[in-house]
């Protein structure tokens, strides 16, 4: 089954985005504002419109604790891990009712995200706030708090109401998620540099937003048009060492040497042919002059 990962941004966005320090010459306030704008631009509607849509956001308890200790309660900035099944909701004006568009069980991977930072559809943040670790709930999210009039590609069309069956597996103040290597995912041509186009393509795919000047200037500190490993401002884990296969390198070197020798040989042959042609031409001229003198 081909699924559409509606939480692609959650796998890409980390708290590091909100903690980026502005480089020299870049105002920290402007940078933070640009980052917030990029983060929030993926959410449809205005804050006022979203507030009005809250009455259509439904959370139904299925099983598990309704009350718990503060450490086990989902709150802003906490790290959360959930199992889920996402479908087009009953009563949705668009989409195939009941169609599964994503599932952690089928995918074999939980959704791990930091709460209230725009890493998931806003309705998902709103609906899970205050839930306890170990609870199982049903969540119905109206279009304005999901993917709006644009949808999110494939099975989720614009204007779709979506539904999730969610089990809260873990809640923590500590980040338990493995580091996400932004650099590796943005560097699409694997040349060891991230261009603005590569960063923009990544942002459009995951955020539906481009790269503000303030963000790019922070990532391209020396202004050469690229962000290298040392300049890069997002999470990137450890730099991978290039593994060299010596046999392959030897083969490449021999092939290059052979190509160079063949090129040189061809050049020598061409020069020899040119010299021979010049010699024949000179002999013909001498013969012509001799004949004329006779």
TrEMBL record:
Annotated spans, Disordered: 254-294
Reaction it catalyzes: [protein]-peptidylproline (omega=180) = [protein]-peptidylproline (omega=0)
Presence of keyword Isomerase: yes
Coiled coil ranges: none
Gene Ontology CC: endoplasmic reticulum
Domain EF-hand, chain residue ranges per copy: 181-209
InterPro entries: EF-hand-dom_pair, EF_Hand_1_Ca_BS, EF_hand_dom, FKBP-like_isomerase, PPIase_dom_sf, PPIase_FKBP_dom
Occurrences of domain PPIase FKBP-type (ranges): 77-172
Annotated EC: 5.2.1.8
Protein name: peptidylprolyl isomerase
